[in-house]
Structures are given as structure tokens and as C-alpha cells.
Structure to design on (312 residues):
């Protein structure tokens, strides 16, 4: 995972153990729907996976996938115009700063209330403990630092700072259920104020370039690779690709090929699916007298004729 180039923005956090992978897995698989599977659930989980793997379709990825629709060259962030628009920049944009601070302040308050309502261990130092963890530190100026645990939250990764609180104050029986309830509310705010807001601005920018959903949908069909023109018959031989000459010898292209064909084209299916204990792989029988008739083979195998005919 450390060598995954897509995760290079959080390489140091991975090395330092700042991500709780157990709780992250719990979140990625979390289902708040009334049914075990649905199109909406698949879309939600797919979005989470793309965001935490830094492969969400930001402008740089869209430009790569649809090069004829987007301008050539580096495209700046639609919100701040100060950096290249990619997954790494989401959360670090200075336009996200005020939203992130408000989200973290609200999350610290909600976490305190959740623990007080669901445990008897809540005490006077709980509030101070929550405020002192680095996740809820909102003293940063301008943009969110990339080393801040909040950056992990933006990309749907669960910081270890947060899970330490749950492991300390919530018993194991209620831990994951309460975490999922809390984290769902937190991530809904992040998605609405960061990702969805950003997507809306990108869509407005795309409309100025006449980039539509249908153009992306039918892009491959409309922009097929042009086939190279046929070679000029009068061109010298040294400009042509060397030709290959094949003899009439036939090479087997399937494991059950038999020279001259089969009298029964379905014989190989019966051999592969039969319960008969072969003395070798079924393909060793493909050229003997009994291959086309499995019943005949069994008769010969159990009689003295097996020494007369080659039925191995």
C-alpha cells in the first residue's frame, strides 16, 4: 500500500499508523439502506472507495479519460485557481478551510454528547480529552495542513485519533454501531460541503465548455481510433511490414483438438464431467477408439478386448 502511487498524498500517515484500517473497512462496507443490496448502495460504496483511493473523477482524471472534451494542459482548481485540480487538492483548497473548521467543531460536540448518552464512564475530563486530540484542532490558518487528521476524513479514511476515543469510552458491544451512527452524520456533512459543492461548481464550469453527460457517455463511440490507411500497392517492399508465411500444418487451438475432427463433438464434455476415475488426464484419451463413445470405452475397459485395442 505504501508503494501505491495513488496513495502517495497519505504515504506518511500510512507509515505512522495514523489510519485505523479496521474502522475504515467498517465504514466502507456500512449500509444504511433497508435492503442488503441496491443501486444506491453500490453507488455510495463505490464513491467512498474512489475517494479513499484518490481515484475519484476529479478534473485531471476526466481530462485523461476524455482528452478531446477538456482543454489541453494543466487545469487549475475551479474554486481557488491556485493549484492543479486533482484528488490530492480536495481538502487542501483554501476555499474548503472554513467548512472543515465548522465540521470539526460540530463533530467534537456530537461525539461528546454521543459518549455521555451511551456510557457511564463519561466524566468531567471527557470534553477536555476530545478537544486535545489533533483531529479536532482547528487552529490552523488558511488551508488545512496535509498532515492534519482531518485530511484523512475528507477522503473517507478513519483517523486513529478518533477511534482511540471509541476504544476508550465505548464498550465493544456498542462500539461499531455507535461509530457508524456518528461517522455517517460526520461524512454526510463532509460530502455535502466539500465533495457535492465542488462537483456542482465543476459541472457549471463544464457547461461553459459544452461538456455534457451524454458527450461523456458516447465519447468512445464517437471518437474511435482511426484505422491506419491501407499500404500503397506501388510502395517499395522495404516500407511494408514483413509478411508471415504459414504452411498447411494445423495446430491445435483447444485442449480437446483432434486431427480429422470428432464423430461426436460433445464427447469431450462427457469426459470432463463424468465420474469415471481416469488413469490420466482426460486429454490422453482423445485419440483412442473409445473417446467418441464413453459407453463403448467402459465395455472395452472391463473386458479382455482392452488388450487388443489401444484404449489408454
Amino acid at each position: 500500500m505504501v508503494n501505491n502511487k495513488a496513495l502517495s498524498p497519505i504515504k506518511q500517515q500510512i507509515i505512522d499508523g495514523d489510519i485505523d484500517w479496521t474502522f475504515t473497512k467498517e465504514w466502507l462496507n456500512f449500509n444504511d439502506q433497508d435492503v442488503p443490496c441496491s443501486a444506491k448502495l453500490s453507488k455510495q460504496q463505490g464513491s467512498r472507495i474512489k475517494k479513499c483511493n484518490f481515484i475519484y473523477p476529479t478534473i485531471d482524471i476526466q481530462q485523461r479519460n476524455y482528452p478531446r472534451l477538456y482543454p489541453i494542459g494543466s487545469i487549475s482548481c475551479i474554486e481557488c485557481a491556485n493549484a492543479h485540480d486533482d484528488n490530492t487538492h480536495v481538502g487542501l483548497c483554501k476555499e474548503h478551510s472554513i467548512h472543515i473548521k465548522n465540521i470539526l467543531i460540530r463533530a467534537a460536540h456530537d461525539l461528546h454528547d454521543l459518549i455521555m448518552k451511551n456510557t457511564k464512564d463519561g466524566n468531567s475530563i471527557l470534553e477536555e480529552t476530545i478537544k486535545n486530540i489533533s483531529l479536532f484542532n482547528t487552529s490552523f490558518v488558511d488551508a488545512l495542513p496535509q498532515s492534519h487528521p482531518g485530511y484523512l476524513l475528507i477522503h473517507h479514511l478513519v483517523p486513529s485519533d478518533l477511534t482511540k476515543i471509541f476504544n476508550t469510552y465505548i464498550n465493544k458491544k456498542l462500539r461499531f454501531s455507535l461509530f457508524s451512527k456518528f461517522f455517517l452524520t460526520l461524512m454526510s456533512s463532509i460530502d455535502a460541503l466539500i465533495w457535492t459543492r465542488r462537483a456542482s461548481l465543476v459541472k457549471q464550469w463544464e457547461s461553459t465548455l459544452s461538456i455534457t453527460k451524454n458527450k461523456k457517455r458516447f465519447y468512445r463511440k464517437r471518437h474511435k481510433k482511426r484505422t491506419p490507411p491501407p499500404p500503397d500497392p506501388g510502395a517499395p517492399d522495404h516500407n511494408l511490414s514483413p509478411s508471415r508465411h504459414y504452411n498447411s500444418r494445423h495446430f491445435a487451438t483447444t485442449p480437446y483438438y483432434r486431427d480429422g475432427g470428432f464423430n461426436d463433438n460433445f464427447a469431450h464434455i462427457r469426459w470432463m464431467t463424468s465420474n469415471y476415475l481416469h488413469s490420466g488426464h482426460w486429454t490422453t484419451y482423445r485419440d483412442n477408439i473409445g473417446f467418441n463413445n464413453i459407453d463403448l470405452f467402459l465395455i472395452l475397459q472391463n473386458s479382455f478386448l482392452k488388450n487388443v485395442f489401444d484404449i489408454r
Notes: The two ends are 52 Å apart (CA to CA). Confidence is low (pLDDT under 50) at residues 238-243.
